[in-house]
Amino acid sequence: MKALEATKAVSIFQESVLDWHKKEAPHPNPYPDGTLEFTLYQKNHIDTIQWHIEDEIRRPDIALEEVVALKRKIDKLNQDRTDMVEKLDDFVIEMFRSVTPKPDARLNSESPAWLLDRMSILELKIFHMEEQVNRKDSSATKEHIEKCQSKLTVLLDQREDLKQCLEELFDDYAKGIKRVKVYRQMKMYNDQNLNPSLYKNQK
């Protein structure tokens, strides 16, 4: 399997963000199920939905029961997000399966999939910061626009840095300088057998 290009991943994340915002609603995944592209798009799609629920839950005027319902949606989306990251790690393992690491090959503290997770969320930050820079309503002061433009410049710089980090990590894997090792998240809060607050209340 050919190694993923960082620019391609960013392009798919951007496509997902734009598709959701056309109607501010879920959009069909345009890629074939089971492909790396499908998984990247789906990963960002989950992030995009969660981003807007996180916004909604912070409204001061919503009822307590709605806050609870939104929090449970967020928990479910967090689990879905982790599942997508682990699927991405499976793709990475397959990409470099044929590579024999050098005896002194080093580990990386962050798997490529969790780096892609950061890149996915970064595209949401960039999209929404650009919205702020382009605001025309009367409450968007010149100072606000200038602050947002400054933040956007940093985010765009971070995009390039993360792309470079991913490319360098893949290059190190391909050369055997680093070895692929993936740790699963093993989240406990959603598991009825691991979360005491859940299994102690089971009848």
Automatic annotation (TrEMBL):
Organism: Leptospira yanagawae
Pfam families from the UniProt entry: DUF4254 (PF14063)
InterPro entries named among the record's database cross-references: DUF4254
Name by which UniProt lists this protein: DUF4254 domain-containing protein
